[in-house]
Design a protein that fits this description.
The chain folds into two domains: 169 residues, no CATH class; 188 residues, Methane Monooxygenase Hydroxylase, Chain G, domain 1, CATH 1.20.58. Helix content is 79%, strand content 0%. The chain contains 14 helices and no strands.
Length: 364
C-alpha cells in the first residue's frame, strides 16, 4: 500500500515536472521562434540578391550578417547589433590589408589577431571586447586568394547589412510594452512572495537558528534577483525612450514603456524595504527574550503583510488596489494605537514605508 502511494506521488511529481517543462518550452518558443524566422527570411533575401548581383560562389557573408547581428531586443528600434556589424566589416578590412602586405604565415596571423583585438577593445559589444572582428579577419585566411576573397566578402556583407537594416523593422516586431509589463508582473510575484516568506521567518518550521537562516537565504536570494531584474528593466526603459523617435511600427509602445519608470522605482524600493523587514524579523526572532513575543507570530504580522503583498502585486500589474491599501492602513493604525513595544515599532517601520510608497504611487 505504501509503495502504491509512493508511486502515485512520484507520478504526480513527474507529471508536474513535464507540465513545467512544456510551459517553459512554450514561453521560449514564443520568444525565440519569431527571431529565428526573421533571421531565416533576411538571410534568404540577402542571399538571393547577391546571386542576382552576380555572386559566383555561395554568398555566405550575406547570410552571416543577420545571423550575428540580429538580436531579440523589444526595447530597440532596430534590433540590430551594430557593434557586430562593424566587427564583420573591420575584420574583413584588417584581414585583406594584412595579407596584401605580409605573406600568409605566423607573422600575418599574429598581426591580424593583434590588430583585431586592439580594435575590439574600442568597438565593444556591451562590456566585452568585440571578438567578431578577429573571427571575420581570420576567415580571410581560408582562401588562397585573400584579396579577391576579402573584396567579395565585403560587398556580400554590404548587401547583407542593407537588407538586414531595411527588413528587420517590419518582420515580426516585438511588443516592448507587453515585454515590460511581463517583467513588472514577474517582479510583482517575486516581491509578494518574498514579503510572505519574510513573515514565515518568524514561524520557521525549524525554530532554530539554522531553520531561520534557511528561510532568510531564500528571501535574500529572491530579493537579490528582483533588484537585478529592476536594474535591467531600468536600462530597458532607457533604451525604449531613446528608440521611440526612430521606431516605425512600435513608436507608441516604446513611448508607453518610457512611462513605466515610476513602477520600476516602486519595485526597487519595495525590494529594499522587504529586505529590511526580513532582517528585523530574523534579528528579533534570534533573541530569546523576543522569540516568544506575540507580535512576532505569523498571524499577527500577516494582518498587515497580506494586504500589502496583494497591493504590491496589483500596483505593478496595473490593477486597482485601494481596498488592499485600506486594509493595510487599518492594520497599521491598530498597531499604532494598541502596541507600543519595541517589536511592534521595529517590524512596523519598513512595512509603513512600503505602505506609504504604495499610497503615493496610486495618487500620482
Amino acid at each position: 500500500m505504501t509503495s502504491d502511494k509512493s508511486l502515485r506521488r512520484h507520478a504526480r511529481a513527474t507529471f508536474g515536472l513535464a507540465r513545467l517543462d512544456r510551459d517553459a518550452l512554450t514561453t521560449i518558443a514564443r520568444a525565440e521562434l519569431p527571431q529565428f524566422a526573421r533571421i531565416v527570411i533576411v538571410a534568404a533575401v540577402a542571399w538571393q540578391i547577391c546571386i542576382w548581383l552576380g555572386a559566383t560562389v555561395p554568398p555566405i557573408y550575406a547570410v552571416l550578417v543577420p545571423l550575428v547581428s540580429l538580436k531579440s531586443d523589444p526595447f530597440s528600434a532596430f534590433n540590430l547589433s551594430w557593434s557586430r556589424l562593424v566587427g564583420v566589416l573591420c575584420g574583413l578590412v584588417i584581414g585583406v590589408a594584412v595579407t596584401q602586405v605580409v605573406s600568409q604565415d605566423l607573422l600575418a596571423v599574429s598581426l591580424v589577431l593583434g590588430l583585431s583585438l586592439a580594435i575590439g577593445m574600442l568597438v565593444r559589444i556591451g562590456n566585452a571586447p568585440n571578438m567578431q572582428i578577429a573571427v571575420s579577419a581570420l576567415l580571410v585566411f581560408t582562401s588562397p586568394d585573400a584579396g579577391a576573397y576579402g573584396l567579395t566578402r565585403l560587398w556580400e556583407t554590404g548587401v547583407g547589412t542593407v537588407v538586414t537594416a531595411l527588413l528587420t523593422p517590419f518582420l515580426f516586431p516585438a511588443d516592448p510594452l507587453k515585454a515590460a509589463r511581463r517583467e513588472l508582473s514577474g517582479l510583482a510575484g517575486t516581491l509578494a512572495a518574498a514579503l510572505r516568506q519574510s513573515v514565515a521567518v518568524a514561524g520557521a518550521d525549524e525554530p532554530t537558528s539554522t531553520g531561520r537562516m534557511r528561510q532568510m537565504v531564500t528571501v535574500t536570494e529572491a530579493l537579490d534577483g528582483a533588484a537585478a531584474q529592476a536594474r535591467t528593466l531600468e536600462l530597458q526603459i532607457a533604451s525604449a525612450a531613446k528608440s521611440a523617435p526612430w521606431s516605425i511600427l512600435r513608436r507608441s509602445a516604446l513611448r508607453e514603456v518610457g512611462r513605466l519608470g515610476p513602477a520600476r522605482e516602486l519595485a526597487a524600493r519595495t525590494a529594499t524595504n522587504i529586505q529590511s523587514f526580513a532582517d528585523e524579523v530574523n534579528a528579533l526572532a534570534e533573541r530569546e527574550e523576543y522569540a516568544k513575543d506575540p507580535h512576532l507570530r505569523v498571524e499577527t504580522l500577516a494582518e498587515m503583510t497580506e494586504p500589502l503583498a496583494d497591493a504590491i502585486g496589483a500596483a505593478l500589474t496595473e490593477r486597482p488596489y485601494d481596498q488592499d491599501l485600506a486594509l493595510a492602513g487599518a492594520a497599521r493604525q491598530a498597531f499604532r494605537t494598541s502596541e507600543h513595544t519595541a517589536i511592534a515599532s521595529v517590524t512596523r517601520r519598513p512595512l509603513t514605508r512600503i505602505l506609504e510608497d504604495l499610497q503615493r504611487f496610486v495618487a500620482r
